[in-house]
Every structure is written in C-alpha cells, then in structure tokens.
Amino acid sequence: MRVYLAGPDVFLPDAAARAVRLKAICAAHGLIGISPLDTLEDVPAAWRALPEARFIALCNEAHITRCDAMIANLTPFRGPSADVGTVFEIGYMRALRRPIFGWTNDAADFLTRSTAFVGSDVAEFGGERRDGEGMLLEAFGMHDNLMIDGAILSSGGAIFTATPAIGARWSDLSAFTSCAAALGGRKRNG
Q1: Hey, what CATH topology would domain 2-109+158-189 get?
Q2: Which of 40, 50, 53, 112 could disulfide-link 108, Cβ–Cβ 3.0 to 4.6 Å?
C-alpha cells in the first residue's frame, strides 16, 4: 500500500532525513511511504517549463493520485490549525475517496487552540465564543476544523494525538507511528 505523507514536515531543517524516518516507520508496518520530496516518475515535459511552485504543486497532486492512502501531520503550523497545504491535500485525497489518517503533537482541541491564538479578543455572546471581529469560534471538541476531522473520519481513517516532551513538538513520531500501525493493520486485515 502506497501512503502519501502529508504535512509541514517538508519545512523542517532536516526535511530529507525526516522523510527517511517516516518511510522507515511505514515500512515496519508493511506500507510504502511517499514523501512530497520524492522525485516523481514520468513527469510530463510541459511541467518542467512551469515556475517552481506550480511544478511542485502538480507533482504533489500526482503523488497523491498514485497513492492508496494518506497519513497527514495535523500538528498546528503557524497558527491554531494544521498547515494549509496539508489541508488541501486532505481534501484532494478525500475527493479520491481513499483512507486518510491524521496525527498531531498537540492534543488540545481546536477551540482551545483558537482561543489561545486570538487571545484577549475572545468574548462570550449568547453562549458562544466570538473573536474581536465577532466571528464565531468552532466549539465542537474536534482536533481541528470540522471539515478536516470530518474528511478523515468519513474516509474511514482516524486521528491520533500525542503530547510530546517540551522541545519535541516536531520530533516526536509516536502519533505518526500509531497511524502507520493502524493503517498497516487495516491492510493486513482487509
């Protein structure tokens, strides 16, 4: 089973080494990890003339299309929510109707993280929490925005959380390992 490894991991200083570690964990569970950093085979000649950003986007979409499932790193990135590129990739995989598993190294729910991000601008209005612009804060007790959690759960996947030691937010792979084990077990049993 080929598994696309979505997440902001590509922005880490040791992104290539991280991809090797994630792939090794996948292999230990009978999966083939595919990183966004992997060279795409059979790249259309027309893509090579495109600006780098477009080329990368098309290659990532092609990787996703060629995979059977996805494991997505939902650890909040530059805000209270998952990386926006990762969220797009989750939607893309959901449209393909393939399983998605998510993992995060922040066990706090989305409301808690959003409230902390907004800060003192949060106020109660009619039993609802709203920010300084009057915008409602989601209060569903989910890991992230309801569309992210919904896509993962509707795909037959699951979300795994960890609370790593201080300083290990981007290095702890225990929740990722749980995803790989669950997906690998599903492969063996189904």
Answers
A1: Rossmann fold (3.40.50)
A2: 112
